[in-house]
Design goal:
The protein is an alpha/beta fold. It is built from 16 helices and 13 strands. The strands form 2 sheets. Strands 4, 5, 6, 7, 8, 9, 10, 11, 12 and 13 form a 10-stranded mixed beta sheet that branches. A 3-stranded parallel beta sheet has the order 1-2-3, with helices on both faces. Helix 9 links the parallel strand 6 and strand 7. The longest helix is centred in the middle third of the chain and has 48 residues. About 35% of the residues are buried.
């Protein structure tokens, strides 16, 4: 589904995903049933039908509800769709081409309308529910007869030996990851302390910054401030900057850009300055730190200089889609005051292409205490973010700073809202920080629990 982001970002989409960590409740914002579901389908031109697993069965209940409300179904390849005819009553395509077929149909409204009409007429006249039920019962009987005997489970002694061996390996790996994390954080603290001392000697300030501003900055009145921190990532920076300019274009909000150079090498710093000179017509500012503070400190450096009511932090390795800022701002601008941020669905990608999605589940404090499922690419009310003390800077959070911020939101009884559209791309990077952060999940959540004791953590 992530691979469809490049085609779906410009369309009005309603992409709904569910977490299975607990039963889905009727009032779940990502869930629709009864009249709200039928109203949503009636307002929708095309429904994408994707199988939950590998079985290519035709999701009849979903299809009939869509067709009955005038919505055309574009389905992943299926079996058992008769008497519906592909190309006449619905479209069918391999998974990798599903979004492409849907977009092509969206551009061809006469064909879509004719297909919707043909499907509606068939389901309301010729489609016999009794025949479908009989076919389903027959198929169920065949499957039941094909069922084999269950494999004999291992005895208690075998299970215990296997579990003890596995747990020993897990504990050993967790201890190694924890030790590596502590050592690496200590090394970072030493390096940053030395850099701060040098900054104090050279500039009289341990937190010294230099600021370069484009000609368009001074007279500009922004709606949104986008903060891009970077440290020796100048090779990615142009793509990130261009995506911000596109997202703040004609149909986007009035946008200013703040690039925070977190004590990069001189070559990377020069590249950032050259990039700023190339976009002198755009309201942008380069804030260069004399000493490295790490990603959250760099974000806060940008936050201190943001002038807009709404702010978004964009990593230098990531990009926004052209409608991303507008969709987030529209969501947040009309939200209740307890909604302090808006986030959208992100396409994850690497050098090979799309690898999935993230930030696709609705706000759920219970799930936040189990998984870091919301990304840092989110739009905040600036005053609310400042009241939360900005982006957390505790060293031992080590890659989980953004998740700590979401837990702070939940702990204060506040929340964020999901816009169910693809708003940007998140680059998957395999570096040392990512490896240690991901492997040492156990101590990460121990630290998070200690920092947010008022949350009802699971036992």
């Amino acid at each position: 589904v992530g691979g469809a982001g490049g085609m779906l970002w410009e369309w009005q989409t309603d992409l709904r995903f569910f977490s299975w960590h607990r039963p889905i409740l009727a009032d779940d914002p990502a869930f629709a049933a009864g009249d709200p579901k039928f109203e949503a389908l009636a307002d929708t031109r095309i429904l994408l039908n994707v199988h939950r697993g590998d079985e290519p069965y035709f999701e009849w209940a979903r299809v009939v509800e869509a067709v009955a409300n005038g919505c055309v179904v574009v389905s992943e390849n299926s079996v058992g769709f008769e008497p519906l005819t592909p190309g006449v009553h619905f479209l069918m395509a391999p998974f990798d081409y599903l979004a492409e077929q849907a977009v092509a149909l969206a551009f061809d409204e006469p064909r879509r309308a004719a297909m919707a009409d043909a499907a509606y007429k068939l389901t309301t006249t010729a489609l016999s529910q009794s025949e479908l039920l009989q076919a389903a019962l027959t198929e169920a009987a065949v499957v039941a007869k094909q069922g084999g005997r269950a494999r004999k489970p291992p005895n208690r002694r075998q299970r215990r030996a296997r579990n003890e061996s596995t747990m020993s390996d897990v504990h050993g790996l967790a201890k190694t990851a924890s030790d590596l994390k502590v050592a690496y954080v200590a090394q970072l603290q030493t390096t940053r302390s030395i850099e701060a001392a040098i900054s104090a000697i050279e500039h009289g300030d341990r937190d010294h910054v230099e600021v370069i501003t484009t000609s368009a900055w001074r007279a500009f009145d922004p709606e949104v401030s986008v903060i891009i921190p970077h440290s020796n990532q100048s090779h990615f920076l142009p793509d990130a900057v261009r995506s911000v300019i596109a997202a703040g274009g004609e149909s986007g909000p009035r946008t200013e850009l703040i690039i925070v150079d977190d004590h990069s090498t001189s070559e990377s710093r020069v590249a950032a300055e050259q990039l700023l000179a190339e976009i002198d017509w755009f309201p942008a500012r380069l804030v260069a730190r004399a000493a490295s503070g790490g990603l959250p400190v760099a974000r806060n450096t940008g936050l201190e200089r943001a002038r807009a009511q709404y702010v978004l932090a964009l990593d230098a390795t990531d990009v926004l889609y052209p409608t991303g800022l507008r969709r987030l701002l529209d969501k947040l601008a009309v939200a209740p005051t307890d909604v302090v941020a808006a986030y959208g669905i992100l396409e994850r990608f690497d050098a090979t292409g799309s690898v999935g999605l993230t930030s696709h589940l609705s706000w759920d404090p219970d799930l936040l205490m189990r998984s870091a499922y919301i990304d840092s690419m989110a739009m905040f009310r600036r005053d609310a973010l400042v009241a939360l003390d900005g982006y957390p800077t505790a060293e031992l959070l080590f890659g989980f700073e953004h998740h700590d911020l979401w837990l702070s939101v939940a702990e204060r009884g506040l929340r964020a809202d999901l816009t169910r559209s693809v708003i940007g791309r998140r680059r998957e990077q395999i570096d040392l920080v990512r490896k240690i952060s991901d492997v040492d999940m156990a101590s990460n959540f121990v630290i998070l629990r200690e920092r947010h004791p008022r949350l009802p953590w699971p036992s």
